[in-house]
Amino acid sequence: RGRLLTRILLCILAWSALATVTGKLALPGPEGYLFGISVVIAAAALGGYLMRLVRLPPLLGMLLAGFLLRNVGVVDVPSAVIALTMNTSNSSNVTNMSILDMGNSSSSSSSSLTSNLRTSWSSALRSVALVIILIRAGLGLDPAVLKKAKYVILRLAFLPCLVEASIDAVFAVVLLDFSWAWGYILGFVIAAVSPAVVVPSLLGLQDRGFGVAKGIPTLVIAAASFDDVIAISGFGIALGLVFSTGGSLALNILRGPLELIGGIGGGTLVGIVAWYIPSSDKSGGHRYRNRIMFLLLGGLTAVFGTRLVHFTGAGALGTLVMAFVAGRKWPDEDRKQVARAFALMWHLAQPMLFGLIGAEIDSTTLGEDFVGKAIGILWIGMLFRVIVSALSVTRYGLTLKEKLFVALAWLPKATVQAAIGSLALDTATQQGGTPEQIRLGKMVLTIAVLVIVFTAPVGSIAISLSGPRLLIQGQDASATDEFSHDGT
User: Fold this and answer.
1) Which among 192, 208, 335, 186 is positioned nearest to 275, based on CA atoms?
2) How many CB atoms lie within 10 A of CB 12?
3) Which H or E run includes 188?
4) Which one-letter DSSP state was computed for residue 124?
5) How far is residue 282's CA from residue 367's CA, in Å, rounded to a whole number?
6) In whole angstroms, how large is the CA radius of gyration of the chain?
7) Phi, psi for 349 (deg, rounded to 5)
8) How far apart are CA 314 and CA 243, in angstroms?
């Protein structure tokens, strides 16, 4: 009770300081953007606390808090489409538009308590939180497992994503009368897993020793970053088939390999630089702080910089690789101190990430008559994902229970869907698309919302509840003996 009271007081003080510095931006009203964000973050923190009391994943309460605030009219997140329809003269290709630029419209009005949450601000804050968790994940990766399981990681990244996207595309063609190109646009929107949900859930189990003997957390976390690059690249290719010129399509086809090479190469280079800067002969306190700032600023530059040059998938992968490579040559005490700092930052950033993701979900988009078919497509695709995920980790020395856990850990979806779910509709609107293209874009957006609503909480609960039941805790000798395959 004392801890809760302390946090409430700190929230009040933080908002008071913000209001005195920024004025009307932090006050209720038409321009109270910071106030809206503050309300969502505070409510998300409370929701997470309540979920902990009933032994459910905190992010479930955070998502629910943001969703409720958005849909009961407390906060309003203006649609990207509003800004685009007000400026349809700009015919640039939205596949090359920074996600930070979407929905940055200050002219939309609202009767809600806090007026608008600027979509660009919300997206930027979510990205900052994602950088923090990716750095923490990179520092926690086990190099021995990565070396042993490199082929399994590639199978787990590629096969479930491609199979689920293809199954979704087939059923979209059959049930929703999509073309094949539009079917794959939808398929890759659905197929991407969410590192923002998967990584913290896996790190929580890893901290308690579950699955560590066989490197299961490292296996899933590493594959998750590749999965997103594949999904975003496949989405870009399919979108290019519908909207782009031949030159742009060629670039979209090359985008996936370029993002993989750029993310791994850039992250490795920056990580190597971090071995020598700051120098290891500096005093501990200064060295820790400098290394923390180096990783944080490097991750922010990677994520936001790759968006500016339209290679979004490379940023998250590069951040993960940078933190992993940097930690390889640091003294153990340095790595532990930096990891503790990012664990604290994540504790503060978690409500911001999941509360703002929840606030992106608009229940009014769920009223279409095709929702039943859409849910059917979603669950059929996920069934195939579960089966293929379990098959992808064969010959890795896992028991049937552990394979089932890996398959369940591959279910949550949120961040990619929130980022690219509206791009097909945005593109059709900007380029003066046909009524049919606009209709299909709206359907893709609605299904993206459904994906977040159903899979983020279900997947999070599945990981949190099944992990202690399906995974071995600690460095069990028999488990380590069984973990003797070459990962191929």
Assistant:
1) 335
2) 11
3) helix 180-191
4) H
5) 60
6) 22
7) -85, -20
8) 23
Instruction: Decide if 166 contacts 180 (C-beta within 8 A).
Output: no
**How many C-beta atoms lie closer than 10 Å to residue 436's C-beta?**
11
Distance of CA 5 to the CA centre of its chain: 31
CA-CA distance, 345 to 133, in Å (whole number)?
A: 9
Contact 61, 50 (CB under 8 A): yes
Question: What contacts 142, CB < 8 A, 6 or more positions away?
Answer: 215, 218
Take residue 185 and report the two structure tokens written for it: 């646009």
Amino acid, res. 314: A
Residue 454 CA to residue 238 CA, distance in Å, equals 25
Integer angstrom CA distances of residue 258 from 135, 191, 230: 22, 20, 11
Q: In the 8-state DSSP scheme, what is residue 437?
A: H
Under 8 Å CB-to-CB from 375, ≥6 apart: which residues? Answer: 450, 454
CB 193 within 8 A of CB 232: no
In this structure, the dihedral spanned by the alpha carbons of residues 33, 232, 229 and 216, taken in order and rounded to 10 degrees, is: 80
**pLDDT beneath 70: ranges in the chain:** 1-2, 29-30, 73-120, 244-250, 252, 256, 279-285, 312-313, 361-362, 365-369, 419, 430, 475-488
Q: Which residue pairs from 374-378 have beta carbons closer than 8 angstroms and sit at least 24 positions apart in sequence?
A: 374/176, 374/443, 374/446, 374/447, 374/450, 375/450, 375/454, 376/171, 376/175, 377/168, 377/171, 377/172, 377/175, 377/176, 377/186, 377/190, 377/447, 378/168, 378/190, 378/447, 378/450, 378/451, 378/454, 378/455
Q: Which residues contact 383 (CB under 8 A, 6 or more apart)?
A: none
Identify the CA nearest to 220 among candidates 400, 344, 396, 452.
Answer: 396
Q: How many residues does the chain have?
A: 488
Could you write out the three-class secondary structure of 363-393? HHHHCCCCHHHHHHHHHHHHHHHHHHHHHHC
User: pLDDT by residue (tens digit) across 365-420?
Assistant: 666 567 888 999 999 999 999 999 999 998 888 999 999 999 999 888 877 787 67
- How far is CA 347 from its chain centroid? 16
**CA–CA separation, 368 vs 450, rounded Å?**
11
Q: How far is Cα of residue 374 from the mean position of the Cα atoms in its chain?
A: 22
